[in-house]
Amino acid sequence: MKVKIGSYPYRLTCNLHRNHMDKKYGYVNWPEVEAYEDHVIEAIDGGVQTVYDWVNWLWFDRRTQTIKVRIDRWDTWSMDDTLAPIILPMLVQLKTTKHGAPIVDDEDVPKELHMTKKEKAAFDKDGSTTDKFFARWDWILDEMIWAFEQKNRADWMDDYDYNKWDSEGVKAHQERMTNGFCLFGKYFENLWD
Q1: Sign of torsion, CA 22 26 29 35?
Q2: For 56-76, what is each residue's pLDDT tens digit?
Q3: Is the domain of 124 the same as that of 173?
Q4: Residue 143 CB burial class (10 angstroms; 0-12, 13-18, ≥19)
């Protein structure tokens, strides 16, 4: 197998006004400004962005992300073992660099992470979240990471004593791995940074 994926296509964006407002007023809740200075910077930003839009249209919008994949015959003999070492570091990096979290179903997390009625009402009303909202996604990511770590260990069954075979322990271990893979499938489209 050989995979080469280029970076996402780049577009020029002028953030002069945004950077100015963030620096002057902070990152949330910019006030309605009447200041001449802020409007001048906004106008300059708009002019620069107009030029950028032309350059984007002429050059950057015509580019696409390059993806080249070559699959060898043996890559599909045990495709789960082939993909696990690729997926694991991606999940670990995603957990480290993520900037948000998707909505996680209560049925997928332990009871202590379930959304309370108050939290659900606030979320439904205006999208308000609590730390628990993000903790749910962290728990899901941890379960996926654990499952792929185990898949990458050919010897995970050695954790269980062969002399006194712990069939219940092995079964619970395998069920947790399977659950991690199911969560990976369920939340596949939420694996974004």
Answers
A1: negative
A2: 888 888 888 889 999 999 999
A3: yes
A4: buried
Do 90 and 156 lie in one domain? The reply is yes
The β-bridge partners of 5 are 67
What residues does 2 pair with on adjacent strands? 70
Domain end marker among 50, 70, 90 = 70
Structural domain of residue 98, as residue ranges? 78-190
Residue type (1 letter), 49: Q
> Which of 16, 46, 70 finishes a domain?
70
Note the pLDDT of residue 34.
63
Residue type, 132: K
Contact 145, 139 (CB under 8 A): no
In this prediction the pTM is 0.73
pLDDT at 148 over 90: yes
